[in-house]
Write a structure and sequence with these properties.
Blueprint: E1 3-8, H1 16-27, E2 32-37, H2 45-56, E3 64-68, E4 78-84, E5 87-92, H3 96-101, E6 107-112, H4 119-136, E7 144-145, E8 158-160, E9 163-171, E10 177-182, H5 183-190, E11 195-199, E12 203-205, E13 220-224, E14 229-234, H6 239-242, H7 250-253, E15 267-272
Parallel strand pairs: 1-2, 1-3, 3-5
Antiparallel strand pairs: 4-5, 4-6, 6-7, 8-9, 9-10, 9-15, 10-14, 11-12, 11-15, 13-14
Helix pairs in contact: 1-4
């Protein structure tokens, strides 16, 4: 059974997502459809990539992921259809593909959307191309090869022998802060040494917890979350507030360019002894 996931910044307050699902079921009968999220910020690409990647990796090989984020930032005459690591991605040519994957895939074709002006007209072209692909199993049947695409890449942690520096990439609904330091990167640099996580002015954490329940109410904690990223929190409190940030800052982001927001000036440093 073909599997398609849908991800967007559209929300679900109007008919668009329902219409897209109707198109899929009409053009590709028997297809299984799953929603990853429709609440992404249209401007915070790092956040969007974090959310998408950590859900998409749990889907079976061969899944087609249709990602509709910041669709109309640039004039669009085509949409990208790419293959990487057993999965397939349909994404606007706006830099989000490389932001998600951290690289430019070798296998990319373009789906022609010239003459399609409304969102539903565009998604119909997309679904038709995906249907051609499912019928043949050949990406080349869905569009024409393309080499030059817009490339935007995620920021990476900085490090030296005795320190690491990461940036905030996500604030969840409980105002916990996720940093772009992965557990395997941390352990490779720590080498079992004592450490101190330093953030804002004088806030520090010197132990890793297993989960939120490992510390008393109102205490700070750091742990590696289900996605394997460093997360710092205040149990029952508001860690984002210590940075002067809020989940609601996304409203301001939508007035800015992708990745041009104050989250990326918020550093979390780890010092090893």
């Amino acid at each position: 059974m073909p599997v398609i996931t849908l991800t967007s910044d559209i929300g679900q307050e109007d008919f668009i997502i329902g219409a897209v699902k109707g198109q899929i079921l009409s053009i590709i009968p028997g297809c299984s459809i799953a929603d990853i999220t429709h609440q992404l910020s249209s401007k915070n690409y790092l956040q969007g990539a974090y959310i998408f990647n950590n859900a998409a990796k749990h889907y079976p090989s061969g899944t087609v992921h249709i990602v509709m984020v910041n669709f109309f930032q640039y004039p669009q005459e085509h949409v990208l259809f790419a293959h990487y690591n057993g999965h397939f991605f349909v994404v606007p040519d706006n830099g989000f593909l490389t932001m998600m994957l951290g690289l430019k895939p070798k296998d990319i074709v373009k789906i022609d959307i010239k003459g399609a002006h409304t969102f539903v007209q565009i998604t119909e072209r997309i679904v038709e191309a995906v249907a051609y692909f499912f019928a043949s199993g050949n990406l080349a049947d869905a569009g024409e090869p393309i080499d030059e695409i817009l490339e935007i890449y995620p920021t990476q942690p900085k490090f030296d022998a005795n320190w690491m520096e990461g940036q905030i990439i996500f604030i969840d609904q409980f105002e916990n802060v996720v940093v772009n330091i992965r557990q395997e990167e941390f352990e490779a640099h720590a080498k079992g040494r004592p450490f101190k996580i330093v953030f804002t002015r004088n806030e520090t954490i010197e132990v890793l917890s297993r989960n939120y329940g490992a510390v008393p109410i109102a205490d700070k904690l750091a742990w590696f979350n289900s996605a394997g990223y460093l997360e710092i929190s205040v149990r029952g409190g508001n860690m984002a507030g210590l940075f002067g940030l809020s989940k609601n800052d996304e409203n301001q982001m939508n007035k800015q360019r992708p990745n041009d927001n104050k989250w990326f000036f918020q550093m979390v440093r780890v010092f090893f002894e």
